[in-house]
Amino acid sequence: MSASKTFGVVAEFDSAAAIYKAAKATTAEGYTRVDAHTPFPVHGIDDALRHGPSHLGWLVVCGGIAGILLAQGMQWWTNAVDYEFWVSGKTPYAWPATIPITFELMVLLASLVAVFGMFVLNRLPRFHHPIFKHSSIHRVTDDRFFLSIEAKDPKFDAHGTKAFLEGLGAANVEVLEDD
Amino acid sequence: MTASTVPPIDQNAPTITTRVKEGDLGGSTNLFLGVGAIATIVGIALAMFDGTGGGYFAYLVAYMFTLSIALGALFFVLVQHITRAGWSVVVRRLAENMTTVFPVLAILFLPIAIGGPESLYHHWWHVAPAGSPAYDEIVAHKAGYLNPTFFYVRAAFYFAVWIGLSRYFRNASVAQDQNGDPAITMRLARRAAPGLLLFAITTTFAAFDWIMSIDPHWFSTMFGVTYFAGSVMAFYAVLALVCMWLRGKGYLGDIVNTEHYHDIGKLMFAFMVFWTYVNFSQYMLIYYANLPEETHWYQYRSHNGWDYVGPILIFGHFLAPFAFLLSRHVKRNRPMLAFGAVFLLVMHWIDMQYLIMPVHQQDTASATGLEFGFDHIASFVGLLFLFLGWTLRTTSSTPLVPERDPRLRESLKFHNI
């Protein structure tokens, strides 16, 4: 291996059907660090890539529960403990009156965690990604579909993997360096 | 056939089975209809010979429960058309079949309309003259709306709208099975807009007339929406269960897949949450404003044997199913989804009891909370089985899916991202 690390191999396909078939063939071959980069969501591509479900949902649930606890704790502490406050004959801590704020804070924290948790799980923001070195990657937002196999994949072998992807009918199969 | 029509089913979707074999569901249909008819007659008889009027209240609980499923089905059909939905085409015919029950429901409304008023609506059915001991000033001022004649006129209008809408949309869909004309789909999308408007008005006022007016002092503008929200949730629960039942009979297994069940589960979950949202909005405003003419409704339901039913609804109609059905795995697992659907239907029935039964217990000073008497069981089983039997009857008579709907193939290949 050279001094600079290899990121992986990136191949270009010209249709959603082609990348779907290629993704199936790649995972069937035993590759595991495979990803697709497409201009629009391709139906069934997650299953073809054998990507498991996202863990984001668990983070969002935690965010929601944190919002509930924060709202309940805050309203109970401020109204019933720190400064007891009687409003229109309701007891200082009256649970029905706390629900709207609890609901709002639950939604707020859950959605903030959904957005920023997504950033964290995707390791964003970042200034550069090795895949941008690919010569035609700019067409990923337009009309081309790209499949990447990372060097971290135990089955990865620069020459063999490149030949395998070319065998699937890909164009511009390039080995990209990570530096 | 011109090039612009959708081809017949053997070209449109050749791999699926869309017809129920002759007489295949006949046994089940007859069983449902037979048991339903006998139990309904028993329920009505119990209501007629029950001196306290409790039987009519039991019948009303069962009736509003069953009606809610049919209303949910009509709403579903209208919404699929107005949104031009693709995913739902494979289950739309089942919803259309459920809406064929409205003429039966109109006949089953007669016990409420004829025998029921003296028990159910006696607070306003006869207006006592001013000055007499029974004179009720609030009810007297509402007599312009709450009077027998207008009550009958409105009920006739509701059923005319529901029967008209359901027949119009189902007949057009069945006609498309024959001619494959995509213009029908476009026309139904346009007609669904005024249809939904009529649906919203009739459902809201039916809930006002038939449930809310049993306690004529109390009013809530949110009431119609709470009934509607529970109705649509109950419909999705029944839709999921009917799909699974037909799957067990060897139908729809190749048509309705995990993706469709997932979406039915999502919508059932959504309307369960929506029910909670509108019910809490209603409770919150009444609780906070603290006006006696509004709070007495919740006041009675916080005691007198009903004190544990409110918490049952909070936990059983919201918190527990929220935690359970939130999971994608649950909604995509048929036995678990079936459990959630049955559970929510039980909760919907408790909700109907919570709305209706306390009034009777208040009138007769018999505080017992939830009732499980023979009159409740007979009416509930009777009306629900008649509903299911009638739905199966129409399911056998027409294709299981809209065979030549332009979006059928999209629906068959539907996939959640």
Briefly, what is this?
The complex is a heterodimer of chains A (179) and B (417). By secondary structure, chain A is an alpha+beta fold. In chain A, 46% of the residues lie in helices and 15% in strands.
Annotate the secondary structure layout.
The complex is a heterodimer of chains A (179) and B (417).
Chain A: E1 5-13, H1 16-29, E2 34-37, H2 45-49, H3 56-82, H4 95-121, E3 145-150, H5 158-167, E4 171-178
Helix pairs in contact in A: 3-4
Chain B: H1 9-12, H2 26-49, H3 54-82, H4 89-99, H5 102-108, H6 110-115, H7 117-120, H8 122-125, H9 137-141, H10 148-179, H11 182-210, H12 223-248, H13 258-289, H14 292-301, H15 309-325, H16 328-331, H17 334-364, H18 374-397, H19 408-412
Helix pairs in contact in B: 2-3, 2-18, 3-4, 3-10, 3-11, 3-12, 3-17, 3-18, 4-10, 4-18, 10-11, 11-12, 12-13, 12-17, 13-15, 13-17, 15-17
Physical arrangement of strands within the biggest beta sheet of chain A = 2-3-1-4
Which secondary-structure class do the elements of chain B indicate? mainly alpha
Largest sheet of chain B: none
How many separate helices of chain B? 19
Q: Mean of residue pLDDT of chain B?
A: 94
Tell me how many strands of chain A there are. Answer: 4
Q: Spell out the helices and strands of chain A N to C.
A: EHEHHHEHE
Shape of chain A: elongated
State which percent range the strand residues of chain B make up. under 5%
First-last Cα distance of chain B = 36 Å
If helices are DSSP runs of H or I spanning 4 or more residues, what is the number of helices of chain A?
Answer: 5
Cα radius of gyration of chain A in angstroms: 25 Å
Can you give the mean pLDDT of chain A?
A: 92
